[in-house]
């Protein structure tokens, strides 16, 4: 959708044609231009479109209309490129560029630069692609000077097309990133034009380009979002053919991301839209065949083999009755996939042969397209034979396809793919030497093309051939090379496959620990790439790890626990955590960890062993875990020792908010005791007395805790000052003993403040007394001291 597109000027020239105020010559030229663009957009008859565009060029030149001449020349060059006459298109463009430069026609120069860039972008070799990039950048600069936002946007689309083609051929991530930048700039230019129809068409093309680039970068959420936006624009503009093409692309993305039902719906909608197009053509048949293949693929992925066969056979019969050979060939190709899924390899190969024969009758004028289609179908047939285990037949078919690709220009990448198929055939025939030779041929081509992804895949093939020969060390090196290449390009699926090979090789060498390590890493990579099938395939990593377990503490780290300054012992222990691995950071995992320490250890006082303090890790600095108070509880043996018969047990609890924002829940427990001089054995309290005591308890806890910060509350909890206050104030109701705060829970914390935490862990947080020394006054001396002083003076 991005390359050699028309400038969508049919509306403009149709209006000019119907304008009675224009001269008959202008109206005739506009009519011819509109007719040519209509034929070209429909891709029905590019040869006639080229002739019409050439006539329009002549008429506009006679009228001395530079804008009409530039638009018609772009249309003429676009039609030539669509006829696969790219050399002729480049010749015309370069001649007209020279004419525009001599005459100082900046608009004509920009138009020819843009047309040359669009033509040289595809199937013209790597040198022409580099030149196309320069042409497109220069066209963008000239259009920016002219203030033509729409054509500047088209120039940015051409820049993006060149970058995408360079990225596809060499699979360099940086080229795709450049394309993303250009497409975003083009989208910005088109959106600045508002509701103009031509601008909306450009916006949709830019969105489609972004979806394609993000799919190449494996950023599928963004790719899906941009593709859906493009579908909405095509639908709004009423362009059913382009909407169908976008829906087919969206369906492929959805199937690739596991959205099978959504992908099936999109593919079926695309197929119905293409079938409803009023004027069928060769392009229409090709698109219909592609949509049908996606529908079949979706049904097969959903395990609906019978439905897939029904759809393929129904469409095939319809195409045969209509005499549509191109669509018949596409339907036969789709049917072959169904037959292969059913296990009928012979029928699948026969269907591919029929598809090749049907395609030969479509259009003999397009010899290159026919040859490439035949080579692609032979490659698919070879793939079927490989899946069926017919390795000798697959080898013969792959060599036939390779011979066709060798005769075509700019098909080096396809040649490398066929060498890969030949490698697979040799590998299946256990011919390790020939397999290694084929893999290296493929590797040489990818190195020449600077295709990092292809090169990494070829290294995987080399690894497999070396493994078959028993050269495990060299195979490990090849797999590591592939892993590094995939990782450098952020290609997660390829990296996972390389790690799978490394895991298998390590297992064959008897190193089970390393095998489990590679397998677990591969499983994590597939999980990150959102590939559940490969992730499940790597699930054996869990079993592999159990065969030879290492010391789990080798993966652990020790951290020191720092208690708050309200306790005497600051270094109160150590805690263990797994080292940082991937996205799991050790320090972040430590935060929030709850630790329980006995108060006797915190204050170095065995008399306080009846209380347990809970500390929460709030911050990690180096190897130190800075903690804060998180709760307190009496030990079970202390509570059991206080419970006796012939007395009442009274409990109460209350929620209190401290002055520094902590909400705490405090539980208090108390026991009744005998009054002074009481003779009676039992000392039970009445219900009314218990209610009054409980009310007193809650009031005192609220008063004691609600007027101080948390650190001061902790200082009251340690010596049990709250319990003593309760005993004192309830003496008039009923005497109590063993009144203690049984439990304290932190319900809610204020927003974390590192400054307050550091104050809590600072050395100057508490007020400490300092011993003051001063000389003793003379009047304070005693008699003995005076006598001693006098004796010393006499001597």
UniProtKB/TrEMBL annotation:
One of its GO terms (cellular component) is cytosolic small ribosomal subunit. It is found in: Cytoplasm. One of its GO terms (biological process) is translation. The keyword Transferase does not apply. InterPro entries: Ribosomal_eS1, Ribosomal_eS1_euk, TPR-like_helical_dom_sf, TPR_rpt. Gene3D superfamilies: Tetratricopeptide repeat domain. One of its GO terms (molecular function) is structural constituent of ribosome. Keywords: Cytoplasm, Ribonucleoprotein, Ribosomal protein. Component of the small ribosomal subunit. Mature ribosomes consist of a small (40S) and a large (60S) subunit. The 40S subunit contains about 33 different proteins and 1 molecule of RNA (18S). The 60S subunit contains about 49 different proteins and 3 molecules of RNA (25S, 5.8S and 5S). PANTHER family: 40S RIBOSOMAL PROTEIN S3A. Belongs to the eukaryotic ribosomal protein eS1 family. This is Small ribosomal subunit protein eS1. It comes from Polarella glacialis.
């Amino acid at each position: 959708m991005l390359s050699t597109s028309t400038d969508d000027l049919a509306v403009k020239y149709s209006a000019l044609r119907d304008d009675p105020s224009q001269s008959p010559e202008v109206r005739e030229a506009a009519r011819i231009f509109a007719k040519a663009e209509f034929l070209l957009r429909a891709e029905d008859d590019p040869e006639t479109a080229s002739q019409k565009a050439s006539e329009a060029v002549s008429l506009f030149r006679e009228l001395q209309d530079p804008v009409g001449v530039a638009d018609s020349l772009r249309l003429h060059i676009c039609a030539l490129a669509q006829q696969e006459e790219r050399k002729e298109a480049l010749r015309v463009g370069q001649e007209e560029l020279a004419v525009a430069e001599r005459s100082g026609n900046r608009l004509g120069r920009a138009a020819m630069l843009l047309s040359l860039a669009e033509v040289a972008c595809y199937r013209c070799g790597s040198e022409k692609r580099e030149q196309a990039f320069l042409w497109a950048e220069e066209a963008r600069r000239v259009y920016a000077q002219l203030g033509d936002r729409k054509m500047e946007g088209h120039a940015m689309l051409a820049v993006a097309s060149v970058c995408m083609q360079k990225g596809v051929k060499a699979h360099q991530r940086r080229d795709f990133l450049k394309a993303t930048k250009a497409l975003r700039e083009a989208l910005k230019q088109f959106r600045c034009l508002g509701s103009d129809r031509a601008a909306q068409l450009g916006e949709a093309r830019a969105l489609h380009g972004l979806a394609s680039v993000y799919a190449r970068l494996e950023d599928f959420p963004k790719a899906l979002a941009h593709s859906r936006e493009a579908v909405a624009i095509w639908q709004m503009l009423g362009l059913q053919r382009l909407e169908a093409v976008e829906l087919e692309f969206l369906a492929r993305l959805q199937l690739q991301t596991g959205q099978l039902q959504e992908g099936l719906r999109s593919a079926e909608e695309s197929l119905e839209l293409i079938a409803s197009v009023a004027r069928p053509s060769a392009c229409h048949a090709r698109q219909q065949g592609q949509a049908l293949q996606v529908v079949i693929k979706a049904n097969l992925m959903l395990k609906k083999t019978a439905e897939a066969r029904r759809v393929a056979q129904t469409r095939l019969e319809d195409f045969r009755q209509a005499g549509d050979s191109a669509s018949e060939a596409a339907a036969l190709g789709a049917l072959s996939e169904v037959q292969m899924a059913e296990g009928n390899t012979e029928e699948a190969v026969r269907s591919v042969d029929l598809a090749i024969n049907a395609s030969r009758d479509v259009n003999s004028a397009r010899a290159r397209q026919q040859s490439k289609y035949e080579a692609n179908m032979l490659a698919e047939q070879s793939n079927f034979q490989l899946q069926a285990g017919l390795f000798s037949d697959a080898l013969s078919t792959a060599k036939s396809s390779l011979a066709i690709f060798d005769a075509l220009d700019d098909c080096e990448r396809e040649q490398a793919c066929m060498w890969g198929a030949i490698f697979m055939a040799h590998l299946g025939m256990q011919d390790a030497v020939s397999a290694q030779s084929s893999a290296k041929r493929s590797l040489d081509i990818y190195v020449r093309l600077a295709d990092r992804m292809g090169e990494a895949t070829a290294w995987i093939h080399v690894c497999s051939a070396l493994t078959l020969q028993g050269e495990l060390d060299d195979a490990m090196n090849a797999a590591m090379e592939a892993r590094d290449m995939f990782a450098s390009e952020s290609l997660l699926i390829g990296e996972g496959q390389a790690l799978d090979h490394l895991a298998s090789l390590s297992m064959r060498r008897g190193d089970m620990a390393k095998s489990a390590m590679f397998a677990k890493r591969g499983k994590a990579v597939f999980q990150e790439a959102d590939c559940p099938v490969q992730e499940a395939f790597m699930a054996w990593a869990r079993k592999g790890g159990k065969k030879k377990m290492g010391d789990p503490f080798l993966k652990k780290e020790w951290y020191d626990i720092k208690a708050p300054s309200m306790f005497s012992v600051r270094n109160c222990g150590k805690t263990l955590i797994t080292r940082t691995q991937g996205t799991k950071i050790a320090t972040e995992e430590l935060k929030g960890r709850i630790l329980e320490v006995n108060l006797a250890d915190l204050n170095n006082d065995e008399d306080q062993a009846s209380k347990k303090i809970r500390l929460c890790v709030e911050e990690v600095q180096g190897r130190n875990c800075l903690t804060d108070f998180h709760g307190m509880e009496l030990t079970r043996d202390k509570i059991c020792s206080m419970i006796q018969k012939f007395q009442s047990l009274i409990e109460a609890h209350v929620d209190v908010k401290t002055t520094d924002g902590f909400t705490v829940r405090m539980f208090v427990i108390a026991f009744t005791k005998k009054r002074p001089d009481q003779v009676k054995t039992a000392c039970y309290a009445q219900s009314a007395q218990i209610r009054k005591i409980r009310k007193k308890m809650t009031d005192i806890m609220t008063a004691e805790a609600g007027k101080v910060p948390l650190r001061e509350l902790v200082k009251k909890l340690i010596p049990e000052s709250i319990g003593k206050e309760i005993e004192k104030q309830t003496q008039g109701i009923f005497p109590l003993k063993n009144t203690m705060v049984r439990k304290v829970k932190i319900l809610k914390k204020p927003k974390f403040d590192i400054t307050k935490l550091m104050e809590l862990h600072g050395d100057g947080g508490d007020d400490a007394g300092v011993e003051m020394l001063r000389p003793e006054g003379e009047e304070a001396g005693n008699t003995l001291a005076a006598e001693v002083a006098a004796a010393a003076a006499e001597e």
